[in-house]
Amino acid sequence: MGFTRISGKMIEAQVVPGQPLYSQRGAMLAYRGEVSFTPNLTGGQGGVMSALGRRARGEAAPLMTVEGRGSVYFGHGGHHVHVVDLAGSLLHVEADRLLAFEGSLRQGTVFLGSQGGVMGMVRGQATGQGLFTTTLEGHGSVAVLAHGGVLELPVTPRRAVHVDPQAYVAHRGDLRNRLSTALGWRDMVGRGSGEAFQLELSGQGTVYVQASEEKL
Amino acid sequence: MAQFRLQDGKVLAVDLTGDAVRAKNGSMIAYEGDMTFKKLTGGGDGLRGMVTRRLTGEQLEVMEVKGHGTCYFADAAGDVSLVTLQQDTLHVEASNLLCTAGGLRTGTTFTGLRGASQGNGLFTTTVEGTGQAALTSQGPAIVLRVTPQTPLRVDPGAYLAHSGRLRQEFQSGVTFRTLLGDGSGEAFQIRFEGEGLVYVQPSERETLGGQV
Questions:
Q1: pLDDT tens across B166-178, in order?
Q2: Which residues constitute the domain of residue B183?
Q3: Per-residue model confidence as pLDDT tens digits over A36-66
């Protein structure tokens, strides 16, 4: 199973009975075989309660369930697609950057304020992530959208990575993120270097960064 | 010395060991280690540069990046090309200049009619000295060599940069048909003569010449 890269902007997914996929609605480009696409009113996994939760939190990206037998091609808006294979680890990603993921993964929503309290909430606002973000956990593949190519940067306890909030795509593993500010008097008078806010990621894992400062 | 590396075409990685580079404002996407970012007013060319840039409209919004570690730069998913200069001058549009090594000097020069036809104004940025510089383009750029025997003509909208001892001349292929509105869209070209390199991108900016 898993996703096969066709080009930098398109992936092929194998669908077999009993193992559904979830994808962003309308992201199917072509398919072979007997495959059905059902709009997922609950916006992902879980029951009605988790759907209501996502709706309330603004993390309800329109998803569809892909079932049957065959192969499906996915792509969206000419954006680059990056495949992340999760082997039991946890991925944090914005719902609107999710192109497709395997049904074997557990989907959840986390409150950014739970990491760092008020600063976490400020961080979500400053980075345009909002107050909530989507998590995926377990074994399986995830396809993530990015503008421009994706750069994977490993983070180790001895090597923290700072990321421009606009270029941040996703992160995997046991990472703590913190909004660090380098606001000086120059920023107050409008002469800033444009790098006043940075996300500092520390711990053990990987951070995915896109080659552009454009949000999707 | 700052080491410039390409990271899959669209990302520039610069290894810094306490030295400084100049990069387009806001183009940092990530870094490891300790870095400081400081905006340089007037393109980092001092007071004279500031006045010149203000007058010529060739505004260069740059910041100085200094520290230890690796810094990653990218600009709107543009493709990055590395240029190594050996006591040479590179002419480039300010908007296409991503990063220059600390030892390089930047300035402005007059380009004349060519600049106007490109829709970039009458002035362009020069980078001179010895060191590495990074350019961004829409699509991967190609490098074309110009020799005295083989002059080159380039579409103003696809022109990115040039280096070496080159003379440039603006030429027009405006004919009777162009005036009738039956043009091929290739009414203007820049002709390069001499010895040097020209960088061309596989995309065309909106130019006056491209309309006719």
A1: 988 877 766 666 6
A2: 3-211
A3: 998 876 655 655 556 666 665 555 667 889 9
B96 phi, psi to nearest 5 deg: -100, 0
Residue B206 burial (CB < 10 Å; 0-12/13-18/19+)? exposed
Hey, where are the domains in chain A? 3-210
Question: How close does chain B come to A112, measured CA to CA in Å?
Answer: 21
Asked if B140 has any chain A CB less than 8 Å from its own CB, the reply is: no
**How many domains does chain B fold into?**
1
Closest CA to B124 of B75, B207, B41, B60: B60
Taking 80 as the threshold, does the pLDDT of residue B137 lie above it?
yes
Cβ contact, residue pair A151, B36, below 8 Å: no
- Provide CATH code, domain A3-210: 3.60.160.10
Chains A, B: CB contacts within 8 A come to: 92
Consecutive H or E run containing A109: strand A106-111
ipTM: 0.79
Distance in Å from the first CA to the final CA of chain A: 28
DSSP chain B: --EEEEETTTEEEEEEEEEEEEEETT-EEEEEEEEEEEEEGGGGSHHHHHHHHHHHS----EEEEEEEEEEEE-STT-EEEEEEEEEEEEEE-GGGEEEEETT-EEEEEE-THHHHHHTS-SEEEEEEEEEEEEEEESS--EEEEEBTTB-EEE-TTTEEEEEEEEEEEEEE---HHHHTT---S--EEEEEEEEEEEEE-SS----HHHH-
Query: What is the pLDDT at residue A176?
Result: 85
Contact: B31, A192; criterion CB under 8 Å: no
pLDDT tier for residue A214 given thresholds of 50, 70 and 90: confident
Token representation of residue B161: 């940069």
Q: Answer yes or no: are the C-beta atoms of A148 and A211 closer than 8 Å.
A: yes
- Window 138-177 of A, Cβ < 8 Å to B: 147-149, 151, 153, 159-164, 167
| Chain A residues touching residue B81 (CB < 8 angstroms) | none
Distance, in Å, from the CA atom of B181 to the CA atom of B179, rounded to the nearest integer, reads 5
